[in-house]
Write a structure and sequence with these properties.
The complex is a heterodimer. By secondary structure, chain A is mostly helical. Chain A has helices at residues 2-6, 15-34, 37-64, 70-75, 78-82, 86-107, 109-116, 120-154, 168-193, 196-215, 221-226, 230-237, 249-273. Chain A has one domain (2-6, 26-273). In chain A, helix 8 (120-154) packs antiparallel against helix 9 (168-193) and helix 12 packs across helix 13. In chain B, the strands form 3 sheets. In chain B, strands 5-6-7-3-8-9 form a 6-stranded mixed β-sheet, sandwiched between helices. A 4-stranded antiparallel β-sheet of chain B has the order 11-12-10-13, covered by helices on one side. In chain B, helix 3 (105-114) crosses helix 4 (130-142). Chain B starts with a strand and ends with a helix. Classes of the chains: A mainly alpha, B alpha/beta. Chain A binds chain B through residues 10-13, 17, 20-21, 24-25, 27-29, 31-32, 35-38, 103-104, 107-109, 111-119, 275-276, and chain B through 45, 48-52, 63, 65-72, 77, 79-80, 83-89, 92-93, 95-97, 99-102, 140.
Chain lengths: 276, 308
């Protein structure tokens, strides 16, 4: 991100000033983010859904456990199940990502922002920094809480796992990383589309609709295409299961990173080329 | 100083700003006049680097606005007062702007006091009236204590009290030696506050001069009241004047007051009132922009008569 700012083509001043404007913009964006109610709500809802839905799904497994056949029991992923609330919670954090810049385009305050900081790429980078930090912290809180509560429930059938078990810590942090990635993708889409509803629709299409469509493809295309989608990558990141049909953690991180970087790059190009 | 050279903006087939050349001098109040759609807002946006010119350049103190790292210290601008996140408080709105330009929190409190929003600064701006929104926009413009201030239609939609407040504020800011560039379509405001005028129509520069010169460039008229309107009108027309009936009087173009009085005396016509009328800024404005108004309100003679 720093490289992007230093290479800012329109700036006449040196890298020292570039860092100064970036730091100032980060402070400004943090104030903006914390001072609107929608932020607080998105974050509360993200945690509540991650924890609440995870607990519900764990309780459902406990209730059915005695009727599961041995193969199902063998393949049961206690970590992944307790984190499954992420599938819904990603929408709340994704909407926050969209709103971080979408609300400025909707209200017209983006012009006040750009008049105060004419280096638009710096503004976009600062917004993304603050958003990523908040999304990761909140995502981590949600995932650790969901994991803890989920395992307590699963322990009712003695199938809970602990953070020290193989791949568990990676999976819990993986959930936070996935939520951060969804927030950033939403942010970039809103920067490109410049409309809140359009950006939300685009984000939901990517994380919800594309996985369903890819399932409709004939084999083996369904699996190959699905592996390139952020939702599938996220799922393999926050489960501890290893199987040929899902990505390894490293590949999952790469897929997510490509989505985040590609949409962010388009956002940077788009914001500096257009009138605001 | 703000300097535009060949400044041009084209939106599709519409030429919003057409080769504008101007200089806005420091320490002077410059009024930016023109009918709606003349390109005033577009010009201001290009000054602030929000819209990129199709051709030409505009600089602030010798450099392009987008090259100023912390521009609020050089230019304060009020473009759209209500372009705010409705659930953010005025204080946090100003604080975020201040932080982006390394301005202290103390200064935020100072400008809040200056515009009289101290009691409501913690409230969400969505609950603000138009006048309060305008005050907040002005507070934002003053944050960096800039030598140049730019206001787009600052009195738009304000009540008389708000208009008076802005008028006094502009005067005191001008007395401090700041450069003020304000657009308005309210002539009375301009006549009261501006020293210099930039008049635009259809994106082109029509006049750039002092208010006194713009007003003085047109001929004045003479208003004469008499019980014998038709008789006197015929006599004055015979001497080459253009005469129009206004209420119970004649308005005479092309003759001075002395000639009109002499003509009435020579023909033994009683005159109840004889007034020399200087052209108002409004008259001058309409004379200058007449050819360039995009949408004429056709066939409304009574409104045209109300202009003065």
């Amino acid at each position: 991100m720093t490289a992007v700012i230093v290479n800012e083509p329109r700036s006449a001043a040196g890298p020292e000033t570039a860092r100064g404007t970036y730091r100032a913009a980060v402070a400004s964006e943090w104030t903006k983010l914390r001072s609107v109610r929608s932020t607080v709500w998105s974050l509360v809802v993200t945690i509540a859904i991650t924890v609440g839905l995870g607990a519900l799904l764990c309780a459902a497994v406990v209730a059915r456990w005695d009727r599961l056949d041995p193969i199902e029991r063998l393949r049961f992923d206690a970590t992944g199940r307790s984190l499954a609330g992420i599938f819904l919670a990603q929408l709340a954090i994704g909407v926050l990502g969209v709103l971080v810049i979408g609300s400025e385009y909707t209200t017209g305050s983006i012009r006040t922002t750009f008049a105060a900081t004419p280096r638009r790429k710096t503004v976009v980078a600062a917004k993304a920094t603050v958003l990523a930090a908040v999304a990761f912290v909140v995502g981590a809180i949600g995932c650790f809480a969901a994991f803890g509560i989920g395992q307590v429930i699963l322990q009712g059938k003695h199938v809970g796992v602990s953070l020290g078990d193989t791949n568990v810590l990676r999976a819990v942090f993986g959930g936070a990383i996935y939520l951060t990635a969804v927030a950033l993708i939403g942010f970039s889409l809103a920067t490109i589309i410049r409309r809140t509803p359009g950006a939300i629709a685009a984000l939901f299409a990517i994380v919800l609709v594309l996985p369903i469509l890819s399932n409709a493809l004939p084999s083996p295309w369904d699996n190959n295409v699905a592996k390139l989608l952020p939702a599938t990558a996220g799922e393999s990141l926050f489960s501890t299961r290893a199987a040929p049909d899902i990505l390894t953690a490293t590949h999952a991180v790469i897929v997510l990173a490509v989505w985040v970087v590609a949409t962010f790059a388009v956002a940077l190009i788009s914001v500096s080329r257009r009138d605001s | 100083m703000i300097r535009a050279e060949g400044l041009t903006k084209r939106y599709g087939s519409t030429l919003a700003v057409d080769h504008l050349d101007f200089e806005i001098q420091p320490g002077v109040v410059t009024g930016f006049l023109g009918p709606n759609g003349a390109g005033k807002t577009t010009t201001m946006r290009m000054i602030l680097g929000l819209d990129a010119p199709t051709a030409g350049t505009v600089t602030v103190n010798g450099r392009s606005y987008v090259d100023i790292p912390f521009p609020l210290h050089e230019v304060g601008a009020l473009l759209e007062a209500k372009a705010l996140h409705p659930s953010r408080s005025a204080y946090n709105h100003l604080l975020s702007l201040a932080q982006s330009n390394r301005i202290s929190r103390q200064r935020v409190d100072v400008v809040i006091d200056m515009v009289g929003l101290a009691d409501v600064a913690g409230r969400p701006v969505g609950k603000y009236s138009l006048g309060m929104g305008q005050r907040l926009g002005i507070a934002a413009a003053l944050l960096g204590d800039p030598p140049i201030l730019m206001f787009d239609e600052p009195v738009n939609g304000l009540d008389p009290e708000g208009i008076l407040w802005i008028r006094n504020l502009l005067k005191s800011l001008a007395l401090e030696g700041r450069t003020i560039f304000l657009s308005s379509h309210l002539m009375s405001e301009m006549a009261q506050t501006a020293d210099e005028l930039l008049v635009v129509g259809r994106g082109r520069l029509i006049a750039a001069d002092s208010v006194a010169n713009v007003v003085g460039s047109g001929q004045g008229t003479v208003r004469v009241e008499t019980p014998h309107l038709d008789e006197l009108a015929a006599i004055l027309r015979a001497r080459g004047a253009t005469v129009t009936y206004v209420d119970n009087a004649l308005e005479v173009h092309g003759l001075d007051a002395r000639t009109v009085g002499d003509a009435a005396f020579e023909n033994r016509i009683v005159v109840h009132e004889l007034v020399r009328q200087r052209e108002s800024l409004e008259d001058a404005y309409f004379r200058l922009t007449d050819a360039s108004v995009d949408f004429h309100a056709a066939a409304l003679p009574e409104l045209a008569g109300d202009r003065r």
